[in-house]
Amino acid sequence: MFLIVFVFGSLIGSFLNVCIYRLPRNLSIISPSSRCPSCNIPIKAYDNIPLLSYLLLGGKCRYCKARISFRYPLVEALNALLYAAVLWRFGFGWHMPVLFAFCSAMIVITFIDLDFQIIPDTITLPGIPLGLIAASLLLPDPFDRSSILGFQGAIIGLLSGGALFYAIAVFSRGGMGGGDIKMMAMVGSFMGWKSMLLTTFAGSLLGSFVGIFLMVVKGKGRKTKVPFGPFLAAGALISLFYGQEILSLYLRR
Fold first, then answer.
1. What does the DSSP assignment read for 38-80?
2. Helix (H, G, I), strand (E, B), or coil: what is residue 223?
3. What residues have CB less than 8 Å from 170, skipping those under 6 apart?
4. Under a CB-based contact definition with an 8 Å cutoff, are residues 228 and 178 in contact?
5. What pLDDT score was predicted for residue 221?
6. Which helix (H) or strand (E) holds 250?
7. Quick check: 19 and 108 in contact, CB under 8 A?
8. Please, are residues 191 and 127 in contact by the beta-carbon 8 Å criterion?
9. pLDDT tens digits along 149-208
10. Rounded to whole angstroms, how far apart are CA atoms 88 and 109?
11. pLDDT tens profile 106-157
């Protein structure tokens, strides 16, 4: 079962690469078919096998020999591993497609925000009602995986996530964008207010480490803009997979 889920995750990961490239450019994610960005020749199906084709082609286009970005197999592998992790942590059930979608959304948000410093509404706005519905019916509470989060927990998570980051945006005078607000409203709708707070804390901690690294090692200034979405996405995944364990460790202090 894990192998099937891994392969399925890598196939969806290939599609995520299309979304990462086309969504911020306002291009259709359906047509035209994938093609080499250097020579523009359509990629044949046998050259578009996730992970395997990159290795067989030596990371180069079959036709023009231009270097293929390592990001493509990285996204495919990351999505495949996250799908396998969902099965390992939460087991087989109807919750799996929704959690798969959530993990994939975090990946797409991460790479688009890194490239363009935006978090697309096409991901977050549909994600909010999806989170509310799924959390009400079948999603486990990350802090108590033996029970369903429920509609009340989801709506409180949505409102608290949106309100907290709206307040941060106001007080920081533009230091936080509207995309982050909608993203955290979506995270709250999927996982509730406790997970939203852990996501914020973990994302802020990771962002601080990276910021210090950039200043000390790379010589970046304090005013250098670093997108926050990737850190929030990482915090959301930490909360999803390890929220219950982190809470248990905290209560044992």
1. TT-PBPPGGG--TTHHHHHTTTB-TTT-PBPPTHHHHHHHHHH
2. coil
3. none
4. no
5. 58
6. helix 229-251
7. yes
8. no
9. 999 999 999 999 999 999 988 887 766 788 999 999 999 999 999 999 999 999 999 988
10. 24
11. 999 999 999 999 999 999 999 999 999 999 998 988 888 888 999 999 999 9
- CA torsion 9→106→20→30, rounded to 10°? 60
Structure tokens at 14: 């290939």
Token pair, residue 195, equals 């997970």
Cis peptide before 32 (omega within 30 of 0): yes
Long-range contacts of 109-114 (CB under 8 A, 24+ apart): 109/183, 109/229, 109/230, 109/233, 110/229, 110/230, 110/233, 110/234, 111/20, 111/71, 111/75, 112/20, 112/23, 112/24, 112/229, 113/179, 113/227, 113/228, 113/229, 113/230, 114/227, 114/230
pLDDT at 51: 93
pLDDT over 80 (residue 253): no
Q: How far is CA 108 from CA 33, 81, 105, in A?
A: 19, 15, 5
**For 19-57, how does the pLDDT look when each residue is reduced to its tens digit (9 = 90+)?**
999 999 998 988 888 888 788 888 888 888 999 999 998
3 state SS of 144: strand
Instruction: Give me the pLDDT at residue 224, please.
Output: 65
Tokens of 19: 């979304």
Closest Cα partner for 16 from 91, 61, 83? 83
**Cα distances (Å, whole numbers) of residue 62 to 19, 69, 108:** 23, 14, 26
Amino acid symbol at 100: F
